[in-house]
Structure formats: structure tokens, C-alpha cells
Amino acid sequence: MTAQTDQQAVSSADSAEITPDYNLEIFGESCPYPAVATLEAMASLSKGEILEVVTDCGQSINNIPPDAKNHGYTMLSIEQNGPHIRYLIKR
Predict the structure, then answer these.
(1) What distance in Å separates the CA atoms of residue 43 and residue 20, rounded to the nearest whole number?
(2) For residue 55, how many other CB atoms are within 10 A of its CB?
(3) What pTM was estimated for this model as a whole?
(4) Active-site residue 57, yes or no?
(5) pLDDT in 10s for each residue of the chain, 91 residues
């Protein structure tokens, strides 16, 4: 259990050092809207740019990570803080 906690702390510390190029906040919207909006935003980024997505849609965890992977994007970080989920995605 300690190893998992230490790993989570490292993951959070690493993502805190990443500065996203763009931010997308989606609150009060149910899926699939957050996933669709994320893919639309990602399409406008240049290769290597990072998008930060913050949403309160709990179901987005089932859509955003697999959609990002299927489109060839890199999921850098997924963090949950209360009802908010923060994704860092690199194009």
C-alpha cells in the first residue's frame, strides 16, 4: 500500500511540473460532450503541444483516455481532486 501511495505522489509531482499550452474546462456537461470537446480541441493543436482538460464528468474517465490513445495522442497525466478530473494530453 505504501508503494502505491509513493507512486501516486511521484505521478502528481511530475504532472505539476508540466505546463500545458492550452486549457479546456468543461463543467456541468455529461458525456459524451467532454470527450467530443477534448478531441475537437486536440485536433487544433500542433504536434508536441499539451492540452489540460478539467471536467466534473465522472464518466469522462471511460471516454477521454481511450479516445486520446485511439487518435495517437499521449495521456501524460490523470488526476482526480474531489469531483474534478484533470487530464494532461500531448498531441
Answers:
(1) 15
(2) 26
(3) 0.83
(4) no
(5) 333 333 333 344 467 788 999 999 999 999 899 999 999 999 999 999 999 999 999 999 999 999 999 999 999 999 999 999 999 999 9
DSSP the chain: -HHHHHHHHHHHHHHHT---SEEEEE-S--TTHHHHHHHHHHHTSPTT-EEEEEE--GGGGGTHHHHHHHTT-EEEEEEEETTEEEEEEE-
Spatial separation of the C-alpha atoms in residues 68 and 72, rounded to whole Å: 6
Instruction: Please state the length of the chain.
Output: 91
Q: How far apart are CA 85 and CA 64, in angstroms?
A: 11
Q: Which of 11, 15, 29, 31 is flagged as catalytic?
A: 31
Task: Count other C-beta atoms under 10 Å from residue 88's C-beta.
Answer: 19
